[in-house]
């Protein structure tokens, strides 16, 4: 399945990131969820990140001729399908067995970057 097909399938099933968040919260053990969804220290950065992202507004331009947008980007000399990737997260074995295998395989299939935590199980 191509990157575009995955995108359509996912956005039909989970229209917003918050839909994935709710689903994940139901499926993994509570203690693991608390670790995954937390921030460090006073957790201030979580709110600051959210506020920063909420300030970014995408403005659709309809009826303006050919549409030829691409999310492809070059990172460390390699071409990826999107300027985002899988960030390193330690102790993912607490959430699901073989998480790193799934994440690495998915990142490879979707052609996005993947980072392995030094604390990976
Ligand atoms: C639960 C959790 C575990 C993380 N574990 C690691 C880690 O082991 N190594 C690492 O370099 N970054 C780790 N991070 C940081 C993330 O990879 C990522 O850089 C960060 O969440 C990105 O956004 P932020 O810095 O704005 O929070 C972890 C983040 C979370 C939420």
Fold blueprint:
Elements (H helix, E strand, L loop, with lengths): L2 H11 L3 H11 L2 H7 L7 H11 L18 E3 L2 E3 L4 E2 L12 H12 L2 E2 L7
Parallel strand pairs: 3-4
Antiparallel strand pairs: 1-2
Flavin mononucleotide binds next to helix 3 and helix 4.
Please give the share of residues in helix: 40-55%
User: What ligands are attached or bound here?
Assistant: flavin mononucleotide
Strand proportion: 5-15%
Order of helices and strands: HHHHEEEHE
Protein model, in words:
The chain has one domain. The model has no long low-confidence stretch (mean pLDDT 90). It contains 5 helices and 4 strands; from the N terminus they run ααααβββαβ. It has 121 residues and is mainly alpha-helical. The protein starts with a helix and ends in a 7-residue tail after the last strand. Strand 3, helix 5 and strand 4 form a beta-alpha-beta unit. Flavin mononucleotide binds next to helix 3 and helix 4.
In short:
With 121 residues, the chain is mostly helical. 43% of the residues lie in helices and 8% in strands. The strands form 2 sheets. The protein has a two-stranded antiparallel ribbon with strand order 1-2. A two-stranded parallel sheet has the order 3-4.
Can you give keywords for this protein?
121 residues; mainly alpha; two-stranded parallel ribbon; 5 helices; globular; binds flavin mononucleotide
